[in-house]
Specification:
The structure is a single chain. The termini are far apart. This protein has helices at residues 2-41, 44-87, 89-110. It is mainly alpha-helical and 111 residues long. 95% of the residues lie in helices and 0% in strands. The protein has two domains: 1-42; 44-82.
Length: 111
């Protein structure tokens, strides 16, 4: 029985070593991958990509804000276009013309 205990222990140890033999390269690759990811995070390309993402978000925000501004601008332009008629500019112009005609007639009559 003493002999079979050593045989079973050796077989178990061999199984553990075979399992570790496959795990060690995977651990080594994972550590290498982590180091490369850290290097990429500090690279200029990654910083540029982050800056582009921030600019993209900023432009999206500006685009969302621009739509209501366009509507407000159109309303302001229409108000400016209609303001002379609502302010009575046509009536003032007609009054000035008739006043000028009356002054002209008065000057003609006085001569």
């Amino acid at each position: 029985m003493y002999f079979w205990t050593w045989v079973l222990t050796g077989l178990c140890l061999a199984g553990v070593l075979l399992g570790i033999a496959y795990v060690i390269p995977v651990i080594r690759l994972a550590l290498r991958l982590r180091a490369r990811v850290e290097n990429l995070q500090h690279s200029r390309l990654f910083a540029s990509a982050q800056a582009l993402e921030l600019q993209s978000k900023r432009l999206e925000h500006i685009a969302r804000e621009a739509a209501p501004l366009a509507t407000r601008t159109q309303a302001a332009i229409e108000t400016i276009r209609t303001s002379p008629s609502t302010a009575g500019a046509d009536e003032m112009r007609d009054a000035m013309r008739s006043t000028g005609a009356e002054i002209s007639q008065t000057l003609t009559a006085l001569r």
